[in-house]
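B., you asked whether I could sanity-check this one before it goes into the benchmark set. Here's the sequence:
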Amino acid sequence: MTGRWHRVRVHWHDGRAHDDAIRGRTAGEALANATANWITENPHGRAARVEHLPNPADPRAEFEQEPGART
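And here's what the prediction gave me:
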């Protein structure tokens, strides 16, 4: 999978949510990949929905970084 990291928020049926990062060439592709990971192909504890989050204002967000990497 190529593409940069995108931020997504995974929402659970009980109201909880958590943030994750997933690769995609576009926001739509990243959202589709996250949906497959957390809803479509996840046989255990499927999420209710996944939303794409905007990248932070930090210009470094546009570069290839591992999730959680800080410089």
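One thing to flag: The beta strands are 4-11, 17-24, 49-53. Otherwise nothing jumped out at me.
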